[in-house]
Amino acid sequence: MRIAMFQPDIAGNVGTVLRLGACLGVGVDLIEPMGFPWSDRALARAGMDYAAQAAVVRHVDWDAFRAQLPGRLVLLTTRGATPLPAARFEPYDTLLLGSEGAGVPEAVHAAADLAVAIPMQAGMRSLNVAVSGAIVLGEALRQTAGWPAP
Questions:
Q1: What is the residue range of 87's domain?
Q2: What is the CATH number of the domain that holds 102?
Q3: Staple partner for 80: which of 35, 75, 117, 149, CB 3.0–4.6 Å?
Q4: Hey, CA dihedral for 125, 127, 132, 135, is it positive or negative?
């Protein structure tokens, strides 16, 4: 299981996802360009002290990411056809989060093997991208018996 971020805009969200990956033993893919410079200083400012413990792979672009994808691509999107309670996950899935400002382009939607939406109250637009990733990753790890051993 992996979690990927498509052209993230906000360093703090990347930091949260890196911490999530480090704590749960899940690899993190970052698809560039990012909306902030990747540097030790930027990492420290965003509170990414878990970066050194996370299994992070940076990809120069979408094509480079796609070339190494180990299994299915599962897109988390408010436009997802499959509500999270109905989604079925596999151990080699990569959960893809869109950029905070723009989501993902149509070509990325079309490339997804599964598009999952988190059910929300009527009138609510979306959850924070890192929160969404944590919710779906928790369910995916539960279904695949992928939680780390205590």
A1: 2-143
A2: 3.40.1280.10
A3: 117
A4: negative
91-108 pLDDT tens trace: 999 999 999 989 999 999
DSSP 33: P
Task: Show the CA angle centred on residue 2, arms to residues 89 and 43, nearest 5°.
Answer: 145
Domain contains 130:
yes
Listed in sequence order, the DSSP H helices in 25-148 are 40-45, 62-67, 106-111, 129-143
User: Does residue 46 surpass a pLDDT of 60?
Assistant: no
Query: Within a domain: residue 129?
Result: yes
Q: Is the dihedral of CA 35, 81, 108, 132 positive or negative?
A: positive
Q: CB of 20 within 8 A of CB of 134?
A: yes
Position 150 in a domain: no
Query: Quick check: 2 and 28 in contact, CB under 8 A?
Result: yes
Tokens 């890192």, residue?
130
Is the residue at 87 inside a domain? yes
Please give the model's pTM, rounded to 2 decimal places. 0.93
Between the CA of residue 143 and those of 3, 62, 76, 140, what are the distances in Å?
16, 28, 17, 5
